[in-house]
């Protein structure tokens, strides 16, 4: 039976076996939903601790609840030889950038070598990791080219939104802090294949889990790869525009939040807010496109402009806080403690990849202050953060009043605690509220308050 007969037949019969490589924010939800759809799923990851946790029913990323994990069967493993059992292999490993801002495809090429060593022919291989246009065909496929028989290739860009699911709250201070509600099952999915038959099969495969949205078939793998990059380049540039606008408003003595509220009354205004831009997509993808453009002999003018603005926001926030601390009305010693709330890159999420809070911390340290980072959501990775950065992220603030507080990532738990117990700042101190979540809060003592 040929591949174009075998794989659709196995899918129709519910006998298809899928191996998901990489069990992080992308791979684990994929594995869960395919298993929940009744397919046989093997979850493979090289991180032994991660696999052990998942076998125990613990997901430190909080993508899948213990109840969800216990309700389905996924065969979690660190054994790469299990790839030979797969009819479909989905690659969902991280793709980052190197210190020189060049694409880091090491995890992806390592996964490709595992496939080349252990997979069999008549297998469909789908890449979900974010890559530049052409990477699947130019980098990954040649590594696996030695397998005998026919392979199907596809690319389907992930659209994961890390964070807790949304909750309806009457309390205005928390109502915008929860996850967006966009999940794998209700978010439109882009797929592509190396031929019309593979594209149709991959479309039908993902339709098993995309139950409340549409599956869009891109005309080529390169098109699907480029669409992912465009999505995040667009967001990066839009946020950069608002961030730069906020920098100007700060100099002019205008409240940026008030400007956004006024501008938002127009029917075609796109709502973006200023802030730190971290995570594993927006700060990374523009560099992937700029890299590929350079290989094609094209110099990008716009795509990386947003990176320059967004990358300096942490330093700006730290320095503006220090300026207010150094005002005649705010005496300080220059070695004062400053609370920095939030290490994760976004609210209500334990994901701290490419967090820009670190820029705030380093700048405060440069000026001799004692930053204390408070984030209850990242404690599962406490030792990893300490080992990689030397920063001891604590779950709660201490009793010593600080000279200033910077709310960098407004987790609901943090904002609720501040509303109940204050920001932990002494009288005459400074409160920097990056996202403006405390604009309506009545401080019990005189403080200097400002937000972007």
| Overall pLDDT level | 93
Strand content: 5-15%
Give the biggest beta sheet: 6 strands, parallel
Helix coverage percent: 25-40%
Strand order of the largest sheet: 3-2-1-4-7-8
Q: Could you explain how this protein is built, in words?
A:
The protein has 452 residues and is α/β, with parallel strands linked by helices. Helix 5 crosses helix 6 and helix 8 packs across helix 10. The protein has a six-stranded parallel β-sheet, with helices on both faces. Strand 9, helix 7 and strand 10 form a beta-alpha-beta unit. It has 15 helices and 15 strands. It has three domains: 220 residues, NAD(P)-binding Rossmann-like Domain (Rossmann fold, 3-Layer(aba) Sandwich), CATH 3.40.50; 77 residues, N-(1-d-carboxylethyl)-l-norvaline Dehydrogenase, domain 2 (Orthogonal Bundle), CATH 1.10.1040; 140 residues, Rossmann fold.
